[in-house]
Amino acid sequence: MKGLNKPFQKFWAHDKSLTVLFFILIVQIFIAIPLGQKTAAGRIIFSVFYISLLSAGMVFLVKNTTVRIVLIVLVASLTVLSSDIFFASASLGILDNSVAIIYCILLSWIVLLRTFSEGRITIHRIMGSIVVYLLISLMFTTIYHTVYLITGDDAFKGFSSFDRKEFMYFSLTSLTTMGYGDLLPAAAFARSMANLEALIGQLYPAILIARLVSMEFESSKDAKGK
Questions:
Q1: Cβ-count burial of 215 within 10 angstroms (0-12 exposed, 13-18 middle, 19+ buried)?
Q2: How far apart (Å, rounded) are the C-alpha atoms in residues 109 and 117?
Q3: CATH classification at residue 150
Q4: Domain, as residue range, for 65
Q5: Domain count along the chain
Q6: pLDDT digits (tens, 9 = 90+) for 177-219
Q7: Per DSSP, what are the bridge partners of residue 11?
Q8: Predicted local distance difference test score (pLDDT) of residue 1
Q9: CB atoms within 10 A of CB 91
Q10: 202-209: long-range pairs with CB below 8 Å, 24+
């Protein structure tokens, strides 16, 4: 794992990594998930990539030994739970989704640490804040899928296949508060999560992203002044 993560540690060392991660997530969210990862090999490639990205980021940015131990346990869990690629079941899916939610939270934390680390605010760091925004949509996609696995078809209305791409679409429309009305949460917890995502979707860009943009503008102005 150490040798495998060396390129990823170099990846995290530069602000440009945040822009690269932004485009990777764009491909994942708007191409890979909607079109479907048809083969087990495709899903394994994405899993290995994100696991390596997370573990390298944790090692690079976090010096606490306890957190690193947690990282090892998480990576091991993700590796074991990737078996749902071959053996699908509701219980395994719920467990897999739980780890995926933790994954999104940890990766968001790493990206925010990198975004607000010492140094001048650049366009790449603004991209980092957008990466977290996209990770929020992925996290809620997984939450909705988990609610479906626990509650069943009655948890949502308007879904045709209950495929992950439908949950991704519903998550993005909730996060951006577009609310087309074609897909609706029916279960109480699903409604609460949709409301929470919409609230985050409104406050996060208005507070954090807008603040970063103003800081980047001030940094650029000071640099030109010098």
A1: middle
A2: 12
A3: 1.10.287.70
A4: 2-225
A5: 1
A6: 887 889 999 999 999 999 999 999 999 988 888 888 887 777 6
A7: none
A8: 46
A9: 9
A10: 202/177, 204/132, 204/133, 204/136, 205/133, 208/129, 209/126, 209/129, 209/130, 209/133
